[in-house]
Write a structure and sequence with these properties.
Layout lengths: L3 E7 L1 H4 L18 H12 L4 E7 L5 H6 L1 H6 L5 E5 L2 H10 L5 H18 L4 E5 L13 H4 L2 H14 L4 E2 L2 H11 L13 H15 L2
Parallel strand pairs: 1-2, 1-3, 3-4, 4-5
Helix pairs in contact: 2-10, 6-8
């Protein structure tokens, strides 16, 4: 039986230490983030039906995703593509003056969607909302990091333009971290702790299984 392929594309939030080997479905290729939880849920509840591939790369901005889209997505022709990007487009500007301004972010992201739909006919694309919280990596320049929320609005607008499922994350993260603490979900304000990774996976699964 041919498995339905689900690919996750993004930055370190998706990567989370995955081993980049030839065999994309070996257990260590999922990393320790949300793709691992998604793979576990699907393999347990729908054995043999789905194949999960993690194509996150630490440090990526939207322009980096576009630069590798042919190799990592078009050539593999997944059935589903879920994209989470935006944090580094802001963070790299703060740290090294190498971010992606919001107008360019929207232009390149839109190009990525259009070109992927053209090169992989029938592909189903889902977009996750980029997010940020107050943590040890973000606290010193938190006002600048909050620009990620503006980029999130761009992602939502793109999802509406191309009629793609949008998975909101920020509002729920704000709520649950008020009750249980930021470090329990995003250990540094950006990257998910186990509970945060589980939360993201659950939000994906809830949308995907509808």
């Amino acid at each position: 039986m041919n498995k339905t392929t689900i690919m996750f594309l993004g930055d370190s939030i998706t990567d989370m230490g995955r081993t980049k080997l030839l065999y994309e479905t070996e257990p260590w290729s999922f990393g320790i983030g949300y793709p691992q939880f998604v793979a576990g849920y699907l393999d347990y509840n729908y054995p043999g039906k789905y194949k999960v591939i993690n194509k996150g790369i630490t440090g990526n901005r939207v322009v980096d995703l576009y630069a590798r889209i042919k190799r990592d997505v078009w050539n593999l022709k997944p059935d589903y593509l879920c994209i989470l990007i935006g944090a580094n487009d802001v963070w790299h500007e703060i740290d090294r003056g190498d971010g992606v301004d919001i107008e360019r972010f929207e232009k390149v992201f839109s190009m990525l969607i259009e070109d992927t739909q053209k090169n992989v006919p029938g592909i189903k694309i889902m977009l996750m909302e980029p997010f940020v919280l107050y943590g040890f990596e973000t606290e010193n320049q938190y006002d600048e990091f909050l620009k990620i929320k503006d980029y999130a609005q761009v992602v939502k607008r793109i999802s509406e333009k191309y009629k793609l499922p949008f998975i909101p994350l920020q509002e729920k993260l704000d709520k649950i971290t008020k009750e249980h603490g930021v470090e329990n979900y995003l250990y540094d304000g950006v990257h998910p702790a186990p509970a945060g990774a589980y939360f993201i996976a659950n939000e994906f699964i809830t949308t995907f299984i509808k």
